[in-house]
Structure formats: C-alpha cells, structure tokens
Amino acid sequence: MDNQSSHDSMMGLMACEETRTANTRTADTGATDTGTADTGTTMSPTGRGTAPTTGTPGTTPDAGPTRAWATRLVIVGIVLSALNLRPAITSLGALLEEVRDGLGMSGSVAGLLTSVPPLCFAVFGITAPRLARRFGPAAVVCAGMVAITAGLLIRPFVGGTAGFLAASALALMGIAVSNVLMPVIVKRWFPDRVGSMTGLYSMALALGTSLAAAVTVPLTDAMGGGWRSGLAVWAVIAGAAVLPWLPLVRERGTASAPPQERAAGERAATERHAPVAQPAPLRITRSRTAWALAVFFGLQATAAYITMGWMPQIFRDAGVPAGTAGVLLAVTMVMGVPLAFVIPRVATRLPQQGPIVLVLGVCGLAGYAGLYLAPAAGAWAWALLLGVSNCAFPLALTMVGMRARSGQGVAQLSAFAQSTGYLISIPGPLLVGVLYQHSGGWGVPIALMAALMVPQMAVGFLAGRDRTVEDEAAAR
C-alpha cells in the first residue's frame, strides 16, 4: 500500500499510487505480478516513481522523452474518452419528454430506449478483447470514439424511432468497447497506479455525465428550443476525443505492451531467475468472484441507467420544472466527480471492499425512500444520496483491476463482468417504463429500484473479498 503523504497535484497523486503486491501468489502461478514491488519502477529520493528503462519491440523505449510523451498522450486520451462515455445517455434523459413527443413514443417504447445502452454494452462489449488483440487497445478505443461521434451527430436527424434507435446503437457500440478497454489500458500502461488512474478515469466519466445532464436543456433553449440540436451538439466533444489516440493506433496486441507493463514482467522473471511466463488460458467462468463481480456490475448498472433515464421524469411529474430536473440529475452525476477519485484510492488500501459496497447501498436505499415519500420537497437531498450510491461504478472498475493479477486476466474479467453485467441490467429500465405506464405513478417503480439494491449489496460484498480470479479458476 501507499504509505507516502498526498501530494498537492493530481499528477503527484498518480505518481505515488502503489497497488497491492501479490508476490507469493505470483511465485506460485508464474503469472506477471502487477504489484508495486515488481513493476520495475525505481523510487527517487522524493518518493516518486521514475519510468522503467525496458522497452518494447517496434518502439523507441530508450528515448525517455518519447516514452514520457506517449504516456502523457495516453492520460489525455483516457480523460477525453471518459468524458464521452455517458453524454449520449444523460443528454437524452434530460430531453426524454421532448424526444418522446417528437417521435411519438409511448411509455413502453421510451422504456425500451432506456434499455438500449446496456443491451449494446453487453453485445458489443464482449468483442472488445478480441478486437484489442488484433488491432491493439488504442486503435479500438480510437474507432470507438469515431463511432460515438458519428452516432451522436446523425441520430437526431435520421427521422423516426427506428432510425433514432439505430444511430443511438452506433454511438453506444463505441461506448461499449471503450468501457471494456479502459481498465485494460490502465493496467497495461500504469500497473503501479491502478487506483489513481482508475479514479482519474472515473472522475472524468462522472464529469461528462453530469455536464451533459446539467447543460443539455439550457443549450437546447439557447439554440432555439429544438431537441435535435441539443442532442447533436455533444458530437463535438466526442470528435475531440479521437485525436489523442491517432498517434497510438500502431500499437498491436499484447506484443506491443507499453514499457511499464513489459518491464514489470521481465524484471519479476529476472529476480526469480526464470523466463517470463506465458499466462495459461483463464477459464473465467470457474471463478465465483468473477460471477459475483458480474452480478454486482449488472445491478449497479441497472440502478444507474434507471437513474439517468428516468430520474428527471420522476421530478418533473412531481412538479419540478424541466430545467431544475436536469440540474438535479446533474447533481446526482456530479457527486461522482470527487468520489470517483477518492473511492478507488481508498479501495486499493483496504484488503476487502465490502464495507464500501454497504455504505453506498445504504445511501441508495435512503435516496429511493425519499423519492417515494417526498420527491419534490427533498429533491436535492435525494439527488445527493443517489449520487453517492451511483459511485458503485468506479468501485466496480477498481475491483476489476484488483481481482485479476495479469493484464490478460484484467481484460478477460473486464469483458466478462461488463458484458454479463449489462445483460443483467437490460430489463430494469424497460420494466420501470412498463410499470410507470400501467400503474399510473412512480410508487411501484421506485419500490422495484429499492428492492434491487439489497442483492446488489450482497454480491458486491462477495466481490470485494481479497482474492484473484486466476487463483479461483486454477483451484476448480
């Protein structure tokens, strides 16, 4: 664990972050250790890590400035990409009523629309590791940003519900592969700073989510009140996220792992007087922790997409103005900005993450109770509580990095947990729309949301136990 004092700047925080070591386990299995002791990072007198000196084929690893430039470019790419992983969803949530009226959607069809994101994430996310092995993670993420840009740009203008859904699916396809590969890129490029980099990525994701929720309605009003322009404007930011990845698209597969990851494996093997071990195929479905993490991911995604898709409408039906309802959703999302950076750092310092899961779950139950009893009177409090509860997402991402030891294990676990989890989350938003339409109010849907929080807390506690999927898969 990192026992050094916090630095004033964010880069200082990232530089001194150390993940837990797993030397004993690695010695037994021969897998690459991603703990601090074996990352190949040397410590300066100030306690900051310096870049390792081992490079990769096809690059110029000995050129310090080139390597440092590439690392900074990856950080910029991670941040810009994360900013674009939710505006396609929360901008639509802020204007859902206008989109429904403009396209003639019923409540059930609108519920289907809010279920499209997890469906796309499940279907397309499972392909991400295979695409990354063939083209390289950076190239796949770059293509994902292009898909997001195209989908956001054309979906408001294609006409009709079917075209709107198809264009949304294109954007969500780009989001899906990027969702899966972000933890992989963090593990590959920053194996000794998983907590801090995951926190930075999650914080940027929360910022993009809340920004889209807060300013979509005002932007729509400023551009003449047309919901089409209000949705299309987010393609501009998505286009900017393509640029940092362009110089990195030549990275192909695991053979071109960045210096940080390759140096870790080679140094660990040298210290043990053994060659770098090739990881055995991981049967991820044999791991109980993988299943627990997948279910936890699915239930937190259910809560998140119900919140993003329906919470503004809950407040509007309670008498809250449309602009204020969008701001309330933004408040819920913006809670993830500071907490998404803090929670992963705290999680990497704890042997088990179950207590954090329970705290977040209790906040969610309190928020749902408030929405049920007094949605308008305590709107700001409920928005804050649900914002804290939604920070289960960065916690889940952090546990993906902690529950697998190797980069290959993280890729498999990330794809399995996210794809399976998003499949689990598909019925939730749709069911809420159906219950809302047929019950004539929000009492029954909110009761469903609260009921789902209980199993989320249970499986999250199991997923937070101190073990790795490699050990569990090998033992069965």
Write the layout of secondary structure elements.
Elements: H1 10-16, H2 23-29, E1 42-43, E2 49-50, H3 64-83, H4 87-94, H5 96-103, H6 107-125, H7 128-135, H8 137-154, H9 161-189, H10 194-222, H11 227-232, H12 235-240, H13 259-271, H14 288-317, H15 322-334, H16 336-349, H17 354-373, H18 379-389, H19 392-402, H20 407-425, H21 427-439, H22 443-463, H23 469-475
Antiparallel strand pairs: 1-2
Number of helices: 23
CATH superfamily: MFS general substrate transporter like domains
* Radius of gyration of CA atoms, rounded to a whole number: 22 Å
Mean pLDDT: 76
Principal-axes shape call? globular
* Proportion in β-strands: under 5%
Q: How many domains in all?
A: 1
Separation of the first and last Cα atoms: 30 Å
Count of individual beta strands: 2
| Contiguous runs where pLDDT drops below 50 for at least 5 residues | 1-65, 253-257, 259-278
What structural class is derived from the secondary structure elements?
mainly alpha
CATH architecture: Up-down Bundle
The CATH topology:
Growth Hormone, Chain: A
The H-and-E topology, N to C, reads as HHEEHHHHHHHHHHHHHHHHHHHHH
Quaternary state of this entry equals single chain
CATH top level class name: Mainly Alpha
Tell me about the biggest sheet? Answer: 2 strands, antiparallel
Biggest sheet strand line-up:
1-2
